[in-house]
Structures are given as structure tokens and as C-alpha cells.
Specification:
The structure is a single chain. This protein has about 250 residues and is α/β, with parallel strands linked by helices. It is about 35% helix and about 20% strand. Strands 5-4-1-6-10-7-11 form a 7-stranded mixed sheet, sandwiched between helices. It has a two-stranded antiparallel ribbon with strand order 2-3.
Length: about 250
């Protein structure tokens, strides 16, 4: 009977694994509303998401990795130089629906996500910060992040050890436990890469119009409901003009 139990458990685990592999996140949002002040003077006439690194803009890279992941419905919030992002999306004529949500005032990260994803209902969705230089190397890690989301049925973040960051100015946002639970402590070893999978139910207690995702994350951490995995990529994030010049000089992309 013990051997039968072991066989049954193995079969059950295989069923769960196949189910997780079949499940997929089909929706996404890209944060693209900010001023990009640390990138001046580049952002005087160009919204930060349209700054090119190599042959492609930050926004283009974000959209391409999402399409590769199987996403077929994208929302992008816009505010600063919104007309230029609208023109870019119209010119590219992507094969999937991309809806631009023009904010009347900056809503911060949490408010921007909450406002732009109203018609996502209860479906899970990616949120990408385009400041990170996304490329195809992230594909497998983001697929693993999807599996973690469906296995935990809770929000998940892609983190990276700050020692793997090209920009050494980051102090760290989180820590990551062996059980994949995310914590925040006095000293934090991991940086948030800018990729997360969430659903709108995390906003059920939200009453403010303008708020940061940090408020939501802190509550999830307190309830032990925020999980993560570690990225093994070298973390390239367009944090300021000096980083841009460094990446351009060293030709680290493409």
C-alpha cells in the first residue's frame, strides 16, 4: 500500500505539473506614464519608454517579450508626451490589441495599474516596468514566474541579487526566503526587476486614487502573500543618464 501511495503521489504531481504548464497569463500592462526626469535632457522631447538602447526602444523591448510569452492583450498607461507614444504604437501596428490609457494626472505605480486594468476583471496579468532592458533571455524565467503564480495563487515578483546589477547604486528592495516568500528587512539583498504577475483582487481594500505599489506589497508581505523567484540575468536598468551613456559606450545591448 505504501508503494501504491507513492505511485499515486507521483501521478498526482505529474498532473499538477502538466496543469501548471498549460495555464498561461494572457494579459499585461506596461507602465509608461512618468516624466523620466533623471534622463534629462534626453526626455525633454522623448518619453523615456521611447529611448533606444541598441536598435530598439525600451517600450519596444517590453512589448516584444510579452508577445513572446503569449500575451495577447496589453494596456499601457501614458501621460507625459503621450502623443508620441500613441504615434509609436499606431506606426508599429502590432499583431495583438494594445490599448493606451491616458491619465489626466499621474497616478503613481499602484494607481496607474488599478486605473488601466479595469476590464481585466479577475484575470491574472503581467506588469512590466520598461526601464528594465528586457530581452529574450528573460523568457524562461518569466515562464517560471507564471508557474509560481498559479501554484501559489498569489502575486509574484521577479527579483535579482543586487550583486548582479550593472548599476551598483541600488540598495536593495526585498529579501527572498527559501520558501519563495518575499520579505522586507533592514538590509535587503534583492532588487525588484520590474516584472510582476498580479490580479486586481489585491486592490480590494484600496480607496485612494493615487498610490504606490509599495503600499500594496507591504500589506501582502505582512500577510505572507507575496512570492518571488530570482533572476540570473545581469540586471540592466535605465536608471539615469550616466547609466545610459555607459550602456551606449560599452555596447552591452545587441
Amino acid at each position: 500500500s505504501i508503494s501504491c501511495t507513492i505511485i499515486f503521489c507521483m501521478q498526482f504531481d505529474n498532473i499538477i505539473e502538466r496543469k501548471l504548464n498549460f495555464m498561461q497569463v494572457n494579459k499585461a500592462m506596461i507602465l509608461a506614464a512618468g516624466y523620466g526626469k533623471r534622463m534629462l535632457p534626453l526626455t525633454k522631447d522623448t518619453p523615456k519608454p521611447l529611448i533606444k538602447i541598441g536598435m530598439k526602444s525600451l517600450l519596444e523591448r517590453s512589448i516584444e517579450i510579452l508577445i513572446k510569452l503569449g500575451v495577447n492583450d496589453i494596456r499601457i498607461n501614458i501621460f507625459y508626451l503621450a502623443d508620441k507614444i500613441e504615434s509609436f504604437i499606431k506606426e508599429k501596428n502590432y499583431s495583438i490589441p494594445i490599448k493606451l490609457i491616458r491619465e489626466q494626472e499621474l497616478l503613481d505605480t499602484g494607481g496607474g495599474i488599478y486605473n488601466a486594468t479595469k476590464d481585466f476583471n479577475k484575470d491574472p496579468f503581467y506588469v512590466l516596468n520598461p526601464d528594465t532592458i528586457w530581452n529574450r533571455s528573460y523568457y524562461e524565467e518569466l515562464k517560471i514566474l507564471e508557474n509560481l503564480y498559479f501554484s501559489k495563487n498569489n502575486p509574484v515578483l521577479l527579483l535579482v541579487n543586487k550583486k548582479n546589477s550593472h548599476d551598483k547604486s541600488f540598495k536593495g528592495d526585498f529579501n527572498l526566503g527559501s520558501n519563495q516568500l518575499i520579505t522586507r528587512d533592514a538590509n535587503n539583498q534583492f532588487i525588484f526587476t520590474g516584472a510582476q504577475i498580479i490580479s486586481r483582487n489585491i486592490f480590494h481594500s484600496t480607496s485612494n486614487k493615487i498610490f504606490s505599489m509599495n503600499e500594496v506589497w507591504n500589506k501582502l508581505i505582512a500577510d505572507q502573500k507575496l512570492f518571488g523567484i530570482e533572476s540570473n540575468q545581469t540586471f540592466l536598468h535605465l536608471n539615469n543618464l550616466n547609466v545610459y551613456e555607459d550602456l551606449k559606450k560599452n555596447k552591452l545591448i545587441d
